[in-house]
């Protein structure tokens, strides 16, 4: 029996050493035989090795194309994000007993809500897919979503991993491959080293402050509405009562907001309409502002531009932190009317330039031509009102375009 235990312990130590170093002081700058300088992930692998997060095998190889397992991901992240100690020694996965060599990192990440299991198991030896990796890195490093409606064509907005893939894209951790993320592909050791290094660099580049930043305020303004809307639409599609989906909503909203505005809206939610409760695309560069009255509350003011489906309007969000988690506490939307956006010429130029760049145009220049007066209808007041309509000339690598821009709601179109 002693011999069996010794063999098991030695094998375990070898496996541990194959991917994880004990600490940064033990890290070396050695080269791996199978990772030449021409390897696309060479720099990331070397950087993560130097930091003490990863290691190679006893034969001097790194085996970059080998698929990484869930247990190794847990061990690696536990070193990189420095999670707090375990608050409980309870076993929550039947396949990760206290004697498991990866028990501590797996439990630390589970305690932090970064990883989870299914049917009482963690499946430590299973591979991790790219979308699962996106979730883990998103939650571990608090990546931020941004104003990208659908960065990857194979991860649509209904996909459970959409917020995580979107955050990976917006944060610059992953740009995909020709517009695709390949969510079901297993992650290799080389790719994980690359993604980990990028995620670490994102956090290092942020301001060293505990105060709310614009990046986080934008993230909350996109992430929470998307998740809440998804819960509501799924509930309606499956014909669930509001009380049935309420516990799920309370992970992301306050009780007061759930039991008033969301409860009142739920009977009217439509699963086959092009209109939604929350705005789909917010302005985050021209009219986005936020304030933090205290460390547990954030107020966001922004606008939604008209896009043919929405008429444009003023958007206000209130977020509150409960037990360390940001939740939506209030939301108001006011459609443009007699009170409208009144976008300036300079603001319109900025919007147009960004839009054309987002659609693949390069060398974009936007020149002001003229202003004309136009009228629109305020449906709430049932009155007409006037506003400025600008005319611009847009020149790009794809041609020259005459564009009309409505200052009241941000709608623009080529003449």
Helices and strands in order:
Elements: H1 2-19, H2 42-50, H3 70-81, H4 103-111, H5 130-141, H6 162-170, H7 189-204, H8 214-237, H9 242-249, H10 255-265, E1 289-294, E2 297-304, E3 313-322, E4 325-335, H11 345-358, E5 365-378, E6 383-396, E7 399-406, E8 412-414
Antiparallel strand pairs: 1-2, 2-3, 3-4, 5-6, 6-7, 7-8
Keywords: Signal
InterPro entries: Cell_Envelope_Struct_Comp, SLH_dom
Signal peptide: 1-29
Short note summarizing the structure:
With 415 residues, this protein is of the alpha+beta class.
Multimerization status = single chain
Task: Provide the gyration radius in Å.
Answer: 25 Å
**Overall number of domains:** 3
Low-confidence stretches: 1-27
Overall outline: globular
State the helical fraction: 25-40%
**First CA to last CA: what distance?**
84 Å
Biggest sheet record = 4 strands, antiparallel
Would you tell me the overall average pLDDT? 90
Report the structural category: alpha+beta
- Report the strand count: 8
| Side-by-side strand order of the widest sheet | 1-2-3-4
What is the percentage of strand-forming residues?
A: 15-25%
Keywords:
11 helices, disordered N terminus, S-layer homology domain-containing protein, 415 residues, signal
Can you describe this structure?
This protein has 415 residues and is α+β, with helices and mostly antiparallel strands. It has three domains: 203 residues, no CATH class; 122 residues, Nuclear Transport Factor 2, Chain: A, CATH 3.10.450; 70 residues, no CATH class. Helix content is 34%, strand content 18%. The chain contains eleven helices and eight strands. It has a four-stranded antiparallel β-sheet with strand order 1-2-3-4. Strands 5-6-7-8 form a four-stranded antiparallel β-sheet. Strand 2 and strand 3 form a beta hairpin. The longest helix is centred in the middle third of the chain and has 24 residues. The protein is globular. The termini are far apart. The relative contact order is 0.07.
